[in-house]
TrEMBL record:
Keywords from the named record: Aminopeptidase, Hydrolase, Protease
PANTHER family per UniProt: PROTEASE M1 ZINC METALLOPROTEASE, PUROMYCIN-SENSITIVE AMINOPEPTIDASE-RELATED
Peptidase M1 membrane alanine aminopeptidase domain sequence ranges: 370-570
EC supergroup of this enzyme: hydrolase
Name listed for the protein in its UniProt record: M1 family metallopeptidase
MF (Gene Ontology): aminopeptidase activity
Amino acid sequence: MKLQALLLSFSVFAYTGFAAQNIQNNPGSNHGNRFEQLGTILPTPNIYRTASGAPGHGYWQNRADYDITAYLDEDKRNLKGSETVTYYNNSPDDLDYIWLQLDENEQSTVKNAGFQFPSTLPASTNDQQLAVSELPEKDNGYGVNLEKVTDAAGTPLKYTVNKTMMRIDLPKVLKKGEKLVFKIDWNYNIPNRIKMGGRGGYENFAEDGNDLYTMTQWYPRMCVYSDFHGWQNHQFTGRGEFALVFGDFKVSMNVPADHIVGGTGECKNYEQVLTSDQMARYRKAEGAAEPIEIVTLDEAKKAEKNHSKQRKTWVFAANDVRDFAWTSSRKFVWDGMRVTIPENNNKVMAMSFYPKEAYNLYRKYSTKAVAHTIKTYSEFTIPYPYPVAQSVEAANGMEYPMICFNFGRTEKDGTYSEGTKNGMIGVVIHEVGHNFFPMIINSDERQWSWMDEGLNTFTEYLTEEKWDNKFPSKRGPAWTIVDYMKLPKDQLEPIMSNSENIVQFGPNAYSKPATGLNILRETIMGRELFDKAYKTYAKRWAFKHPEPADFFRTMEDASGEDLDWFWRGWFYGTDPVDIAIDKVTVAVPDLNTPPREAKEIKYKVEKPIQNSFEDISKIRNKEDKSIAFSVDKDKELQDFYYRYDRGQEKVDAEKEYTIKTDPSPALDAKDKEKFRNTTGYQIDFVNKGGLVMPIILEFTFEDGSKLYDKSSAQIWRQNEQKVSKTYYFDKKIKSIQLDPMRETADIDTSNNLWTSAGSGSETSKFQLFKQKQGGGPVRGGANGKVNPMQAAGKKS
């Protein structure tokens, strides 16, 4: 394309120096390896996991089916359970023992994982904190009490409990393709999760004397045995969450008769546990487009006053889930509505359970947020496959298949702030979204928190945007991660860190990966490429166990983008983004440049080039009689220099040869007028932060018009510290703004602006020649020669 065409009306031509010139101008500044491939870091592909990021033809995973009965003793606040587990060994390995998780042992003073955190003496404290900090002198009575562990026939099995893990030693090897049936009876005292912390337990409402139970990680659960880890039996410390296998569940829960129960999966006996009015409302809700109260506020308030001594059993079933959780309380209001997932025409019951303390918020927003979430996530990942999605208000946030626990209570008079409302909607979206990550795309949370929290937080951000374009999302937009990225290096860890080792857990596991994915989508890859790759990952690994390499490789495989530089910097490193405009050089054309005249260059034929030193290979090859050199063997291969060296071309060598360079015609009046207003700008950028990113510029001209330009991060490939770009415009620039929309998480925007008013320097000139007819614009070549149109002025 000729320069003239680029300068008509409002135009721009950008030129970037070649690597040879760039490195020459910035000696010693390269190379930080930010663009090297991750091949030596990622695990080697195999028959289980391919180099494309897809499951391999030999991929396998084990399975566990559960048949559980539970008895909730509200007076003693004790849970008694019995389970029959059918474990399928689909691996190619023989197993002589299996591992199960006893997560409730984390609440015990003697059975917990033993992971401690450092502590310092506070300036002030209270009696409760003092009591918690006392050294445990005896068992506090919490944790799992194993009553019986047997095979299907009732024969006791040998087992060993190691803190929060239990190993069952098998009487005979469990071979590939075989299944094992065993039974466990257990009980545990249910902790007060408000005082003791943790995800499961009870909350007591002193004003009406009732409890709200969230029964989570409440039964002995099978550990994952996988191709990439073997047994995932890392201890449960309360932070790193869960690695679990898929299976089918049948669960019966015996609770006080006035309790309302919600759980993973579908209830199979509503007719036996609901009143006729409640059952009729449930049937109506099954076809409703707006939430309908199944258990009303008045019914919940009435139930709070009478503690029934009668009991009922609720029966639930769930297929292809990795876990089962439930909730029980007489305080619950319960509403529901039907939502249809367009992608698979799945008709889902979206429901919410909440006490009167949350009524004014949850009645308005919860179930609608549930419906919105599963529909939106289905657009960006896979169609929601389950029949139920539920939100429970329990003053916390935690997720399980088809059910999650959230916060969002009003003031006592029923009022609430915008902050509380937005926080409640955000947590419902987030926890319901966990149905996809990791309940379906089943990553190892015990090892990689970001694979569920980060991916889910990113998709939550997309969902919040579709809920309300003005929604004040705290995680996802690039500018929201800047304060974290500014922290000193000794306060940061890479995203690729084990869950237990992260100090800034929220920013590291939630915000930074979510922000990175948003930058990929909006700034680096573009929405079309990103969305296709993201859906491909979800589809490939739905109901399977993905690892980080599977995600990284799939995102590249499905998009055609080499993103190793991004994973290396954003996920494996702690460098921030801080790209600065170092200087801007301004130049205008010298329209009176004399034409370039033709020149004659004379030369003689040079002697053949030979190495000044004969290396060991040459010497040995010359001595090797089996080698016949081609010029000695085939006379037709003897070139001019071979003959010259032997005196055969001496006459030709004495001749002198002449070549002429092409002249350049002078600019005529029309050309001068065309380029009279042309100004060249060389912008020098410095990578001060270390993390490479695209260079995004907004030019504002003196006439008030604007122009945007973006260079991909690949501009830094051959010099990761400094780079320059040259532009030519037919109007004057007033200012240049780097990253005007704050897309790259740049931690220092004070060095992102250049203005002509602040320059104070005279503009220099560059020579401008008329291109010879029929030729294209002169470009720099492999020899590093500079485009003759390049500006060469002083700093302005």
